[in-house]
Write a structure and sequence with these properties.
Layout (H helix, E strand, L loop, with lengths): L1 E5 L4 H12 L4 E5 L7 H11 L2 H4 L5 H5 L10 H10 L8 E3 L5 E3 L3 H8 L3
Parallel strand pairs: 1-2
Antiparallel strand pairs: 1-3, 3-4
Protein name: Arsenate reductase
InterPro entries: Arsenate_reductase-like (IPR006660), Thioredoxin-like_sf (IPR036249), Tscrpt_reg_Spx/MgsR (IPR006504)
Family: Belongs to the ArsC family.
Length: about 120
């Protein structure tokens, strides 16, 4: 089973779920505002994404509205706290497959490659 983490009202997440349905890929959707990822999961995602900087959508309205001192977390603990307070900062959707495959964002070609669809 594939798990897609995102936000219910996110247009990109909606596109991703429609793609999964169109190609018959079974998945579970987790809204990470309702079910916030644990600090351990955030660290795991950051590791797979290439660090916390890569995990965060820095063009989001939420990021731009943060005070400058919050935009430069100096430690893993500060990143985890920031993302627990503002889960919408995580670039979405986050896709985790049972085999451990991880991806962020959505594109038709990216999903075709991730799920082996011709």
């Amino acid at each position: 089973m594939t798990t897609l983490y995102g936000l219910k009202n996110c247009d990109t997440c909606k596109k991703a779920t429609k793609w999964l349905e169109r190609f018959g890929v079974p998945y579970a959707f987790v809204d990470y505002r309702d079910s916030k990822p644990s600090p351990e999961v955030l660290v795991e995602w950051a590791g797979k994404a290439g660090g916390f900087d890569a995990l965060v959508n820095k063009s989001s309205t939420t990021w731009r509205q943060l005070p400058d001192n919050r935009k430069a977390p100096g430690s893993e603990a500060e990143w985890k706290l920031l993302l627990r307070e503002h889960p919408q900062l995580v670039r979405r959707p986050v896709v985790v497959k049972d085999d451990g495959a991880f991806s962020q964002g959505f594109s038709d070609n990216g999903f075709k490659k991730l799920f082996g669809v011709g």
